[in-house]
Amino acid sequence: MKYLISMFLLALLGACGDKSASVTATDAVIAAAAEEQVRGFVFTEWSYDIPKENPGECPEGMNITDEDFFSEEYAEVRDEVKRRFDAGDREGALGLLPADACKDPSVWPDPGHILFNGEASVAGLDLDGESTLASGEGQCAHDDFTGANGQTGIDNQHYRLMGCVKGYRPDGLFDRLFDTNNSILENGYATLLEIKLVAGTRTEGVVEAQLFTSAGPITKDANGHVVPDMSQLVHDDTLFHSAIFRGEIKDGIFTAGPVDAKLKFKVQAIDNYYWFRDLQIRAEMLADGSMKGVLAGYWDIENTFNFLTEVYIGPVHLGRAAANNIGYQCAGVYHALPRVADGHPDPETGQCTSMSTVIKFAAVPAFIIMPETSLQVAQQK
After folding, report:
1. How many C-beta atoms surround the C-beta of residue 113 within 10 A?
2. Do the strands 121-122 and 146-147 form a parallel or antiparallel pair, or are they unpaired?
3. CB crowding 245-259: b at 16 or more within 10 Å, else e
4. What is the mean pLDDT of residues 237-256?
5. Which of 170, 171, 129 is nearest to 153 (CA)?
6. Does a cis peptide bond (omega within 30 degrees of 0) precede residue 258?
7. 367, 363, 361: which is closest to 229 by C-alpha?
8. Rounded to the nearest 10 degrees, what angle do helices 319-326 and 2-12 cross at?
9. What mean pLDDT do residues 181-206 have?
10. What does the pLDDT read at residue 135?
């Protein structure tokens, strides 16, 4: 119901208010980075791949929401829900609605979820080294995509899952949110990348890389742009530190991976983390020292469902309000996730447990400060 959706939108207007995790780099930090041949980066953009030039068609139409699916049930309680919300009884208001699959996906059978089965010009990488078809043999067979530049074999089952959801289409909710870059700029966490030269030169060399989540919000200038060349403090929870992984820089392109990574995401009503497996990076190293490219890997499907549905205002669970606003049913997505999964088969059942996913990103230079040295850096401010 529109009233609940408007309540969710109000929640999205709030900022987190955490203390900044970036400070001006000291001479000692700059000198140490140069001596160790280390370069750091802080992500300034983070978005799902929503192809605009050729997003493909959905001949079966768009997915519907619980509000559409249970339209009669919603209509019967609409006035009472509004009355309880206005009185501050949010839990009581939500309790009048049909059982919530966003809180417990077992409460409803599969209502059907429309997958994207056409062609689209998506971003991404060939993660499995094969051009595959859903009609083919093997575990968790799937249709690959072709990229805008003609690259074949791109694995991006995330778009198969959400390509026929209104909020994931061009000019949909996520497209607009990513354009504003609010997940980074509105006092959320940022992803950090550090690369250390192992052999060769800064422009043609072998490197070791590591991904981190920042310790909190990052510094922006008066125009809302992330300030480069700052010291970025790393989150003190090692859950959000990837292992060190190998990469190379060649012909202006940085490639690295695979590596598993859990990256925290906290903005507005969402406080969660991504669990990516066998993550790979491909990015163009730009003349101003920044980079732009993609993270491509496999998103654990249990973590995916949790990430989509764990939305709160205080103690009140609003996963269904979020799903209504974006344009899908939690029960539908829950039952569809195993159908699109294409990675990491369970050794006992053979069911794939992750789906290929693409994150488009940009990053500017930074100095990465580990938690054990962050106090010293803070004292030098």
Report:
1. 23
2. parallel
3. bebbbeeeebbbbbb
4. 96
5. 129
6. yes
7. 367
8. 100
9. 84
10. 56
